[in-house]
Amino acid sequence: MGYAFTDRYDLGFETPTKYGTDKDLRTAIKALHQSNMQVMADVVDNQVYNLSGQEVVSASRAGVYGNDVSTGFGTQLYAVNSVGGGKYQAQYGGEYLNELKQQYPDLFEAKTYDYWVKNYSNDGSDPYYTLSQNTRKDMPSSDVIKQWSAKYMNGTNVLGNGMGYVLKDWNTGQYFKIGEKNADFITN
After folding, report:
1. How many CB atoms are located within 10 Å of the residue 112 CB?
2. How far apart are CA 68 and CA 59, in angstroms?
3. Alpha-carbon distance 14 to 23, whole Å?
4. Nearest by Cα to 159 from 95, 50, 72, 80
5. Are residues 4 and 17 in contact, defined by beta-carbon separation less than 8 angstroms?
6. Pairing with 10, which of 44, 52, 84, 169 sits 20 to 30 Å away (CA)?
7. For residue 136, what are the CA distances in angstroms to 41, 67, 110, 113?
């Protein structure tokens, strides 16, 4: 668990995470529930980097709304570390999709939604907004993720240029503290 994990189901079963073991996690959740607090898992699936297996992919850029973004390098082939996921990903990936679909069918159905797009005049000044609309396709409950692949990731992950690219000193492997001098690193 933590940032840029590879096995989203490994809660410290065999090797403790930086937060402890799976038993520690269960104890913490029970204590929070006893205090009338709810617990939510915040999983950002596109923060999966540097998996062990490689594949060659064709990558193009997409904006936050899924629209194509033109870049200077266009669509090119890349050898990327985007295959893998770990023992528990293989065991539990998609295990509860049918149950989720029964309880929350609207999550899996196509949906049309409105969103605002920020635009700029030709000289880059005077932002203005336009209302756009898009339709999300049905999400199949049969498409389980037992192993990560580039098809589940956005271009940033495919290229391996996520937060670590910006916040990591690649000479030492240490991460910079945000808002601090470059000499200060986060310690494990």
Report:
1. 8
2. 11
3. 11
4. 80
5. no
6. 169
7. 24, 12, 5, 8
What is the C-alpha separation between 152 and 141, in angstroms, rounded?
15
Question: Each residue of 155-166: pLDDT tens digit?
Answer: 555 555 544 444
User: What would the pLDDT profile of 90-124 be if each residue is shown by its tens digit?
Assistant: 999 889 889 999 999 998 899 898 988 887 777 76
CA–centroid distance for 5 within its chain: 9
- Average pLDDT value for the chain: 75
**The token pair that represents 92 in the structure block:** 């539990």
Q: How many residues does the chain have?
A: 188
Please name the amino acid found at residue 68: D
How do residues 20-66 score in pLDDT, each as one tens digit?
A: 899 999 999 999 999 999 998 877 666 666 678 888 877 666 666 56
Nearest Cα to Cα of residue 94 among 154, 161, 152:
152
Q: Answer yes or no: are the C-beta atoms of 164 and 49 closer than 8 Å.
A: yes
Residues 6+ apart with CB under 8 A from 141: 97, 98, 100, 101, 108
Residue-level pLDDT at 163? 44
